[in-house]
Design a protein that fits this description.
It is a single chain. This protein is an alpha+beta fold and 120 residues long. It has four helices and five strands; from the N terminus they run H-H-H-E-E-E-E-E-H. Strand 3 and strand 4 form a beta hairpin. The longest helix has 18 residues.
Length: 120
């Protein structure tokens, strides 16, 4: 079952760690994460993805009508791709030489492999 980060915090009333809940977009959570120092590589991936989604919100873009072809370079190379009319986009991230795929929209993201398990 997926719940929002805000609901998770209310239920558990404790400090949460990055991997404790699904990555549904939350402006409050993104701002907290951006202030965090010494993030692990895994957490940096999460922050980069959520910050990209945050930019969509800040620019007040119509997600479905928008297209993306963004590339991040450096320690964590990532690409964000989506064509106009599509309800989901795809993220390719390279972490320590391993290529990972995620799907995303303006509400959050999830690993592609997790979604593909639904068809098994």
């Amino acid at each position: 079952m997926r719940i929002s980060i805000e609901k998770y915090i209310k239920i558990h009333d404790e400090k949460i760690e990055m991997g404790d809940c699904p990555m549904k977009y939350s402006e409050i959570e993104v701002k907290k994460l951006l202030k965090t120092k010494d993030l692990s590589l895994e957490d940096q991936v999460k922050v980069n993805i959520l910050n990209f989604i945050r930019t969509i919100h800040l620019n007040k873009q119509d997600f479905i009508e928008s297209s993306f072809g963004s590339k991040f370079f450096g320690e964590l190379p990532m690409t964000f791709q989506k064509n106009p009319g599509q309800v989901m986009g795809i993220i390719t991230a390279t972490v320590n030489g391993e290529v990972r795929k995620y799907v995303f929209n303006d509400q959050g993201y999830e690993e592609l492999g997790d979604l593909l398990k639904l068809v098994e």
